Amino acid sequence: MKHKVTLIPGEGIGPEVASATRRVLEAAGVQIDWEEIAGRAGASSDQGQVVNQAAVDSVRKNRVALKGPMATAIAGGAPSVNVALRKTLDLYANLRPVRNLPGVKSHFENVDLILVRENTEDLYSGLEHEVVPGVVESLKIITEKASTRIARFAFQYAKLHGRKKVHAIHKANIMKLSDGLFLKSVRTVAAQFPEIQYKELIVDNACMQMVMDPLQFDLLLLPNLYGDVMSDLAAGLVGGLGVVPSANIGDECAMFEAVHGTAPDIAGKGLANPTALLMSSILMLDHLGNRPAAKRIEDALERVYCEAKHITRDVGGKAGTNEFADAVIAAL
Ligand code: NAI
After folding, report:
1. From the CA of 274, how far away is ligand 1's center (Å)?
2. Is 124 an active-site residue?
3. Which of 8, 134, 202, 279 is buried most deeply by CB count within 10 Å?
4. Which residue ranges form the domains of the chain, and what is each CATH number?
5. What is the pLDDT of residues 7-65, one digit of tens each?
6. What is the pTM of this model?
7. Nearest residue CA, atom 4 of ligand 1?
8. Which pLDDT band holds residue 2 (cuts at 50, 70, 90)?
C-alpha cells in the first residue's frame, strides 16, 4: 500500500519532530511518497495571504497532510496560518484523543476521552475591529450549519468507535443566542442517536469536572474556543502537550498535527518529544486504511514507554528527540 501525503514540517520544534516521525514511519515499512512544502506564504505572496497557496493545492490534491506547528504573533502581526489552513481546506472537525501512556507520570490513570472541536468559526472568525479608540469588538460567529455538521460528526464518530456518552460544552446561560444556537443544533442531532447518552455542561463547570474526575467523560463536543482551551487542559491530565495528537477532518481532505505549538523555549535543541506528531501519524495511517502499520507503530511506542529508558524530558526521561525515535525504531 503506497500513500501520497503532503508534509508541512512547520516551525520551531516542527521540523525536528517531523523528521523523527518520518524516520519511524519509514522504519515501520510504510510506503509514503512525501510532498514536502512550507505552510506559510513567502514575503512575495499576494497581500493578506498568510498560507502558502502551493501547500493548500498540495493538500487538496493528495487529500491527506501531516503538519508540524506554526507560530502566530501575539496581539498584532499576521493572522494564524494554522487557523487559515483549517478554514481554507474546510477541515471542520478537530478530533483530539487524550489517553494515558504507560509509564508517563500523570494525575490520573485510565483516562481515555475524545474531544471533538468545531474548527471553522466561533471567536476564531478573526473578525475584530476598533469601534472607537479604547473599544474593540470581536465577533463570535455561530451558525446552525456548522454546529449541526460538527454534532453529526461527533455522534457518528461515537457510534462508530463504541463511545457511549457525548457531553456538549457551552456557555449558553450567558451567550444565549450564539451558544444557544450551538446547543439547539446539537440537541436536534442528539435526538437522532438515542443509543448514545447525551449530556450538557457549562464550560466553567466542565473544566472543574475535568480536573476532578476525567474518567466520567467519554466524548466532549465543543465550539472552537472552548475546544482549544479544554484540549490543552485535558493534555495536562495525561503528561502534557508532548503526548497528545490531533486530526483535522473535512469532507474532502484531512490534516494531522500535534496539539502542541512551536515550543520556542526548546526549539533547535533536539529536546522535543515527537510522540504527539507520531501519534498523529498513527491517526493518519488509520484514516488511510493502513491499520497494520498503525498498530506496529502503536505497539513499538508502547514498548518504549513501558521500558521508560529512552523517553524525553517533558515526560520525566533524559532522551533527546533522535534518541527517542531510535528507540521506537529499535522496538519496531
Ligand atoms: P507550545 O505548545 O508551543 O508550548 C507550551 C509548553 O509545552 C512549552 O513549555 C513547550 O516546551 C512544551 N512543549 C510543547 N510541545 C512539546 C513537545 N513536543 N515536547 C516537549 N515539550 C513540548 O505553546 P505556546 O508556547 O503557547 O505557543 C508557541 C507558539 O506555537 C505560538 O506562536 C502559538 O501560536 C503556536 N501554536 C501553534 C499551534 C499549531 O501549529 N497547531 C498550536 C498551539 C500553539
Report:
1. 12
2. yes
3. 8
4. 2-106+238-331 (3.40.718.10)
5. 999 999 999 999 999 999 999 999 999 999 999 998 766 667 899 999 999 999 999 99
6. 0.96
7. 263
8. confident
